[in-house]
């Protein structure tokens, strides 16, 4: 049995689709943990075992992991948390105990690039994510952390600005090149690991996308795909923090995002070489055509 956490998230929902498709030719039992089962499509609910609740709750994960061979682990966002440790490691602590207590053999988690880089210890959300990986790795389960750069899909948060003003923003240098990944490729990497559980021990699986891009590169590609000019504007840290505050983001979450983006500007994501194994297939141009353009036009 495979247990999927966060099955209504971008990554979790796509992963669930992939696993259900695979079950047309294999008979892998699937279980999901979800707060609101009504957010799952009816056709999905009919094909999976549903455990209702939070996967940060000890009773819920102990019940959900009973009989599980593998677990997909993805923490939910919490912009109001008092600390990043509470978002990552503290939220994961009950599940880590349940992995051991229930003899879960394999865990695949969504994490981040940066381990071993000079800035990894001051990278906000990334630093907290790597500490979470260490917690899971100590449970005795075989663990693979999907080590990801920034998500292409994060640009969907700026659809209105891209559509109405032809502008997207960040705090990194316009010329800084770095990998980017589509969330659907993260889901595909997770599906492969969950279905072929021949791997052992602990480690990272980088998912890097097919190319490194700068913000200026992204603006050029978006302009070409959307058929309208799009430009990048670099925000100051103070302006970025003020914007997060206006959106109701708490201090710890805001500082974590700032620290993470500053670390990315210092090369956090560029330490892993792109190979046939680490390059995921979706290009930024393809993602813009298939995901961003429909969102802008809607």
Strand content: 15-25%
Report how far apart the termini are: 39 Å
Write down the Rg: 19 Å
Main beta-sheet strand count, sense and barrel state? 7 strands, parallel
| Helix/strand structural class | alpha/beta
Low-confidence stretches: none
Short description:
The chain has helices at residues 10-22, 42-45, 58-64, 84-101, 125-137, 159-165, 183-195, 215-226, 237-246, 251-265, 284-297; strands at 2-5, 30-34, 49-52, 70-73, 106-112, 142-148, 150-151, 167-170, 178-181, 202-206, 212-213, 231-234.
Structural write-up:
It is a single chain. The protein is α/β, with parallel strands linked by helices and 298 residues long. The chain has a domain at 2-151 and 180-210 and 271-280: NAD(P)-binding Rossmann-like Domain (Rossmann fold, 3-Layer(aba) Sandwich). It contains eleven helices and twelve strands. Helix 1 packs across helix 7 (183-195), helix 6 crosses helix 11 (284-297) and helix 9 runs antiparallel to helix 10. The radius of gyration is 19 Å and the shape is globular. The mean pLDDT is 97.
